[in-house]
Amino acid sequence: MHIHVVNHPLVQHKLSLLRAAEISTNKFRMLTDELARLLAYEATRDLPLEPVTIDGWCGPVDVQQIKGKKMTVVPILRAGIGMLNGVLDLVPSAKISVVGLARNEETLQPEPYFEKFVGDLDDRLALIIDPMLATGGSLVATIDMLKRKGCKEIKAIVMVAAPEGVKLVNEAHPDVQIYAASLDSHLNEHGYIIPGLGDAGDKIFGTR
Ligand code: URA
């Protein structure tokens, strides 16, 4: 499976706090932000570097800089917005592409109701963000859209993944790496991840 479960103690501790039943909106939002930052740190670990010589305080100094990699962060509406600031803290110059998907009640497939992609997608790394990878339908649809627009390098950052969703994404898009704080047990009959976090969108926006 192309899933990187980030076992860093800070990630696991923050995830444990997120799982509490009586967590406040404020705390859930804050922890989501912090987790997004730590997961983005892992997801950007293999960005290519290049040697550069700069003027240092004592003369020329050879340093390593990120090799002109352009990025787009892709929050999936609505819950993905909760992870956006955390990721942008690490990659402040990244451009933002937004995708909104709703289930077509006849086909049961996710269909876009909103999409606004930045340009030059063929030249960018896309970091898709969505707190919960449940069935995987939305993530697969988002990757489909990005690839149709020419994007060649795509990673997904989620807080919690279900094996069902990881399998669907791996089968449809084996080139896409997934970063998560946890690979949980399974989906229940309502499509919620068990043990999961409940409805992450409701908890981030305070609509539960
Ligand atoms: N979306 C959520 O917010 N939670 C789940 O458990 C599954 C999908």
Automatic annotation (TrEMBL):
One Pfam family cited in the UniProt record for this chain: UPRTase
A molecular function (GO) held by this record is: uracil phosphoribosyltransferase activity
**InterPro entries, per database record:** PRTase-like, PRTase_dom, Upp_B, UPRT, UPRTase/APRTase
The protein's annotated catalytic reaction(s) are: UMP + diphosphate = 5-phospho-alpha-D-ribose 1-diphosphate + uracil
Q: Does the keyword DNA damage apply?
A: no
**Cofactor comment text:** Binds 1 Mg(2+) ion per subunit. The magnesium is bound as Mg-PRPP.
Pathway of action: Pyrimidine metabolism; UMP biosynthesis via salvage pathway; UMP from uracil: step 1/1
Q: Which cofactor does it need?
A: Mg(2+)
What EC class does the entry list?
A: transferase
Listed binding positions for uracil are 193, 198-200
Q: Which Gene3D superfamilies match?
A: 3.40.50.2020
Q: Which residues bind 5-phospho-alpha-D-ribose 1-diphosphate?
A: 78, 103, 130-138, 199
- Residue intervals of the Phosphoribosyltransferase domain: 5-207
Q: Which domain of life is it from?
A: Bacteria
Q: What is its EC number?
A: 2.4.2.9
Q: Does the keyword Transcription regulation apply?
A: no
According to the UniProt entry, where is the signal peptide? none
List keywords of the entry alphabetically.
Allosteric enzyme, Glycosyltransferase, GTP-binding, Magnesium, Nucleotide-binding, Transferase
Control of this protein's activity is summarized as: Allosterically activated by GTP.
Can you tell me which family this protein belongs to? Answer: Belongs to the UPRTase family.
| Role this protein plays | Catalyzes the conversion of uracil and 5-phospho-alpha-D-ribose 1-diphosphate (PRPP) to UMP and diphosphate.
Could you identify this protein by its name? Uracil phosphoribosyltransferase
List the source organism.
Jeongeupia naejangsanensis
